[in-house]
Amino acid sequence: MASVKDVARHAGVSVATVSRVLNDSVPVLPGTRDRVLAAVAELGYRPNAVARSLRTDATRTIGLVIGDILNPFFTELARAVEDQARALGYSVVIGNADERPDRQDHYVGTLLERRVDGLLLCPTAEVTPLVRDMVRDGRPLVFLDRTLPGLDVPAVRVDGGAAIAELVRHLCALGHRRVAFITGPALLSTGRERTEAFTAAMRAHGLPVRPEYLEAGDFQAASGRAGAARLLDLPEPPDAIFVGDNLMALGALDEIRARGLRIPADVALACYDDLPWFTHLDPPVTAVAQPVRELGRRAVRVLAERMEGRPVSSVVLPARLVVRRSCGERDGGVPA
Amino acid sequence: MASVKDVARHAGVSVATVSRVLNDSVPVLPGTRDRVLAAVAELGYRPNAVARSLRTDATRTIGLVIGDILNPFFTELARAVEDQARALGYSVVIGNADERPDRQDHYVGTLLERRVDGLLLCPTAEVTPLVRDMVRDGRPLVFLDRTLPGLDVPAVRVDGGAAIAELVRHLCALGHRRVAFITGPALLSTGRERTEAFTAAMRAHGLPVRPEYLEAGDFQAASGRAGAARLLDLPEPPDAIFVGDNLMALGALDEIRARGLRIPADVALACYDDLPWFTHLDPPVTAVAQPVRELGRRAVRVLAERMEGRPVSSVVLPARLVVRRSCGERDGGVPA
DNA sequence: TTGTATGCGTTATCAT
DNA sequence: ATGATAACGCATACAA
């Protein structure tokens, strides 16, 4: 590939001048400028970003480490991050950690070696030494969607507390009393928070939270199915199941269908996370919707400020309840 | 950040020796080796991939330019590509072209500047000059999912012809005669091929392909809805609608629901592309399933061979029909 | 086996 | 306004 040298020779100027017109850092005589541009066009020259990064110590790249791009929540999040990053002139490299600390560290490691300017991390349960080092070294790091305790890192996330409280009230109003919750991993801040919000809301309504109505899942479809199966096998099964994320809801739906149970007649269903397809399920699923695109946008902005050395603080966005028909609503309630 | 120099000083050796143990290119005395490794650990040294790339002229990175990561087909494709790439020691940088040639070129351009070792491209309609240049310059390029005519570039894609023929036969057997098709863009090879396969299969069964039953869509949800609307407004509406991709199917479903029509009693529905959620729709949707993960895997492998300078050829994978209940099947047919 | 020195392509400093 | 040149961090050819 052609380099600055080739362009310089072609235009009859020095490499310095080529660099100057390309970055228009310093004024250049219009005539020379044109000659350089002509040479660039003729040679199809493309600046080598690798060399530039080495020299400038900046890659205009940010890393994004998420759980799994196949999870629609993360898909949308990744897309939002990418859009905002592009708007700010950054590329983004994505890593799918699959909720495994070792794989998270694999990606954080390679991203560090690639000298990304900043990192957006949806942390897995544990605080790995690598993450701790990053914090110690003061590298631009922002937690996304989740937080890790005891670390001074800005986080951009959603607080679903109010929406969950509203959902519980909604379920009560519809006459449900035996409400179960399929939780996310207690090791994840999102898992914990949703569970706490649920139990608090239940108590606030004078409803008991029976231990057997709290099924521990792991945000994966299989655990949703298993959890639903155990709940439905109970001597006194719940009359409503609230599922902690969309993947587990898919699994719970599988199980409910497999048993020939009807929603909401036999059991009501609600989901934390909303999806376009929920409108088309039978019945349409009542869900807690997170402001995913806003989440991604804000995360990039916070990281950008952090990379520019400005002080930043965490961001918390509210979720909202989307009422449909899967909980026994009479007429579909508020249109989605 | 610590560099080789720091490690060398710390271990009391030369930078060359550090480089040697890190890449174990040349045998190094066990003692020195240990000292180097100790220094690396102590300093938390991470090799600078940027500098390495500049020196070796390789980034161990491939670019992937797709239509839109929000399309579940591309989501799964991206994930498959990423997995296979990681297995081969490559990172992948993704770009969402949104089916726009200008945005495709934006990504191809930045990926070129970042000196990716190879590029996987789901080309938009037009052959842009940039793509033509890449081919001319002999850069490792593989077309994914789609092809572009008149270019000597290996392609890894799916042939849905047989599955579409099977679907048409299936529809006929179920008594459907007025079958409509909401097509993809004629400018996309995938759009054209599906349309051709459909019309050929219809003719083979002695069924007329009325022009008004061929609705032109663009693989986006809105066009699916609009197409379905026009079809259902026809004096003699179709008794079955085959939709060219999953996003347009979502749109078509919206329209059918909005009109209060029932599937398959009022109109049968089938979709090119299969999704996990299709099982849970009412009724479950009969679909043509593409071997997406295999598609991604093979694409990376072909590209890898191409990057290693070996001769490669195109790959075509077959799709298959998944019969469910949305076409009036009696008992759900073959379980999905 | 190990060290010294060069160059990858770029930007930036210092002359001119 | 422009040119010569050093330096970024690393891998490697060559020397020892």
TrEMBL record, chains A, B:
This is LacI family transcriptional regulator. SUPFAM superfamilies: lambda repressor-like DNA-binding domains, Periplasmic binding protein-like I. Coiled coil: none annotated. Residues 2-56 form the HTH lacI-type domain. Keywords: DNA-binding, Repressor, Transcription, Transcription regulation. One of its GO terms (molecular function) is DNA-binding transcription factor activity. It comes from Actinomadura viridis. It comes from the Bacteria.
